[in-house]
Every structure is written in C-alpha cells, then in structure tokens.
Amino acid sequence: MICDPLKIAAQAQLRPQTYTVIVERADRVVAKMETAHGPMLFKASTVADDMTWDAINIGRLSAADLPVPTIIAQGEQPVSYIMLRWIEGDALTSASPLAAQHEAGRLLRRVHYLADRPPYARGYTWDAWMTGWLNAALPWWGAQPGIMPQWIDRVWRNFERMRPLLATRGTHFMLQDGRPDHFLVRGERIVGLIDVHDAQPGDSAMDLGVIGIFDNRLLENVRAGYKGDAVEKQTLDQLLPFYIFLRRLAAAEWHAKFGSAVISQKALALTFADRKKNNGDFF
After folding, report:
1. 3-state SS of the chain: helix, strand, coil percent to 5?
2. Are 72 and 37 within 8 A, CB to CB?
3. Which residues face 30 on adjacent strands?
4. Could you give the angle at the alpha carbon of 227 between the alpha carbons of 217 and 198, nearest 5°?
5. How far is CA 241 from CA 138, 159, 232, 244, 266, in A?
6. N or C: which end of the chain has fewer CB within 10 A?
7. DSSP 118
8. d(CA 253, CA 261)
9. Which residues contact 197 (CB under 8 A, 6 or more apart)?
C-alpha cells in the first residue's frame, strides 16, 4: 500500500480505529475509515497535488449547495490525501425511487450551469478532444474479437458528420465521471454526490451519456428530471448515441485492464445490442 491510512488520520488528530480498503492500486488507495469522529472516506494518491482537485471541485459544488462530502482533512505528506465525511447511501439505479432519479437530473442541470463555472480553456477545441478520445479508444476496440474494420470506418464517418455540432460544445461544467454509483440515494432523495475529482469544463451531454452506459431506463428518468427546452432536448438526442458509445468503450477498456472482466464484456455487449436493435446506433 502506498501509505498507512491510520498514521495519516492520526496525524490529522482524527483518532482512527480501523479501515476497510475499497480500492487499492499501485498509485492509489481508497478506504472507509472508522474514527472517534465517525466514519470517513480516505483517499490517497502518489500523484502530487492529486487530491487538490477533489478539494477544489468539492468547494465549488458545495458553494452551489450541492450534496458533496465535507472535507475533514487534506494534505500532501507523505502522499497527496484527503479525508471526507462518509455519506451513507445506495447507488442510484433505475430501481431507485423515481423521485430520486428525477432529482439526479435536476442536480446534474445545476452542475452543468453553475453560475461561477470556469471557462473551457484547453489548447484545442472540444471536437478535437473527442477526436483524441476516439483515436485512443478505437484501436483497442478494433483488437477485440468480432470487431469488423468497416465498423470503425463507420464510426469515423458518423463522427465527421457530428463534428460541427461537437465544435459548439464545451460551455458547461461537467462531472465527467458522474457514474450512477456516484449519486447516493437514501429514502427518496439524493443525499450524496461523490468522487468529483474529474469535474471540469466540458459538455453536459457527456455526463448524461455516462448515466446511460448500462441503464437506458435510468437515463430516461434522469432526463425527465433534467428537463430543458425542445431545442436542447433535440440536441441531446443527437449527441447521446455518440457519448454512450464512446463511454461504453472507455468503460470496457478500463475494466478489462483494472476492474471487472464481467463489466467490461457487458459494456461491449451493449454496443452490439444497440447496433442490432437500431440498425447501428452510432456505428
């Protein structure tokens, strides 16, 4: 393990007792820790200032009265770490109370249209960034069993048709990693919005695409809470097949390398299911 969570918590005078590891990789550890002050979420990384991004985004979203965790301690020694008040809740799914699914949509809209959201400031346009995503994702996808070269060609053709629309995007603030399990439900409410490390300027439609990677019914219910006018809904209808496809490939590759082979195969299978059902949803 990259650090001793108990020593760091003791250094922060939190009187730690025990901890249970949730994630452990060569460069990262996430654990639930029991302390004299109640349960905490402990996160640490070997990347310098990594947890600073958690703190910045938690501060920004907290100022907008969004249900992010409270920061208890943060530091850079011996590694970059942060300790957050633990939020008890269940992951959002299409089996969650409908009121919670609708609330998730309303919360996403508030994230996307934060009054003090920073401007998109990359050295390249949003559509160029999406080109980079495809350049990274498609070679891996093309190496998987059963993938036909003409399918990759079709993805690029469809992407080029969509590129003028993508070039207008990037004006929102997005979670980027706003997976349904990062929305915590208790009763009929969303009580926690967690793991906001990757939140940044971007496209609202990508966040909705992430919601729909594995559960189209959940996406429909979240969109019902998200609302928007007819023009916005039409734009989202155009963009979502692309983002769902892109993020399914990203999920499949990540889980193949670091997570669950079952989840990886499920993400790949869903791209095929959409293609069969819709005669090619995006590819």
Report:
1. 50, 20, 30
2. yes
3. 23, 43
4. 75
5. 16, 11, 15, 5, 17
6. N
7. P
8. 9
9. 50, 51, 53, 54, 57, 177
What tens digit of pLDDT does each residue of 41-75 get? Answer: 999 999 999 999 999 999 999 999 999 999 999 99
Distance separating alpha carbons of residues 119 and 104, to the nearest angstrom: 24
Per the structure block, which two tokens stand in for 209?
């695409």
Other CB atoms within 10 Å distance of the CB of residue 68: 24
Please measure the distance between the N-terminal and C-terminal CA atoms of the chain and give it in whole angstroms: 42
| Dihedral in degrees, nearest 10, Cα atoms 23, 28, 31, 36 | 180
- pLDDT score recorded for residue 198: 97
Q: For the range 121-124, what are the long-range contacts, defined as Cβ-Cβ under 8 Å and sequence gap of 24 or more?
A: 121/201
Say what the pLDDT of residue 272 is.
77
- Asked if the peptide bond before residue 78 counts as cis, ω within 30 degrees of 0, the response is yes
Encoded tokens for 118: 């920073």
Which of 68, 71, 86, 88 minimizes the C-alpha distance to 12?
71
| 33: helix, strand or coil | strand
Which residues does 95 contact at the CB level (< 8 Å), separation at least 6?
none
Burial (Cβ within 10 Å: 0-12, 13-18, ≥19) of residue 126: buried
At a CB cut-off of 8 Å and minimum separation 6, what does 131 contact?
159, 163
pLDDT tens-digit series, residues 243-276: 999 999 999 999 999 999 999 999 999 987 766 5
